[in-house]
Amino acid sequence: MKAVQLDQFGIKNLKVKEIAKPSPKRGEVLVRIKAVSLNYLDVLLTSGNFYKGLPNLPYIPVSDGAGVIEALGEEVSGWKVGDRVAVQYVQNWTRGDFQKEYNIRVAWQTQGVLAEYVCLPQYGIVKAPDNLSFEEISTLPIAAVTAWHALINQANLHVGQTVLTQGTGGGFHFCIAIG
Fold first, then answer.
1. How far apart are CA 35 and CA 139, in angstroms?
2. I need a labelling partner for 3 at 20 to 30 A (CA). Which of 31, 116, 117, 123 fits?
3. Which residues form the Enoyl reductase (ER) domain (predicted)?
4. pLDDT in tens, 75-134
């Protein structure tokens, strides 16, 4: 399968490579990636300028993606081949308010999704809405969840309140859509 990979940091070092197609292990699903979206985080990780630590090389970049489940590992429940899914950015955050310990499996600690196929834990994906394209779905994980967390979980925004936003990126657009 094809994947974009870094053997050393720097955007000029991105290379399309032929690598082995992964097979899902126990509790994992194999997702055929249909679309990805880029975030500033991806630029920082690719360039080697991320302040929280860098991924191990070789590294497949890009955090946000959407696709279709192609295979299930042993003991996977709640998913079936053909399900449309989005990749969760913080894969351990499966419900409720954000907790610090959820940060143990995030983009800079795992391989990214700029590949034809990726294996992910069954809890590291969410069902994708049928009414959105894969391109639209791929924009939701980081920007939309960040905006939701900021407005609803942290600011405790309620119907009828006004929010002043500033910016031009994806998070800004989702703040407008949510607010």
1. 9
2. 123
3. 10-178
4. 999 999 999 999 987 766 666 676 666 666 565 678 899 999 999 999 989 999 999 999
Element (H, E) at 43: helix 40-47
Check residue 28 and report its DSSP letter.
E
Q: CA-CA distance, 30 to 20, in Å (whole number)?
A: 13
DSSP state of 129: P
Q: For residues 88 and 86, give the distance between their C-alpha atoms in angstroms, rounded to a whole number.
A: 6
Percent of the chain with pLDDT over 90: 54
Token pair 């295979």: residue = 71
d(Cα 87, Cα 85) in Å, to the nearest integer? 7
- The pLDDT, as a whole number, for residue 4 is 97
CA 174 to chain centre: 16
Integer Cα distance of 9 and 6 in angstroms: 6
Question: From CA 100, how far away is CA 121, in angstroms rounded?
Answer: 20
Query: Which tokens go with 6?
Result: 């870094």
Over residues 8-14, mean pLDDT? 95
The CATH class for the domain spanning 2-138 reads: alpha beta
Rounded to two decimals, the pTM is 0.85
42 DSSP 8-state letter: H
- CATH 3.90.180.10 location in the chain: 2-138
If you average pLDDT over every residue of the chain, what do you get? 88
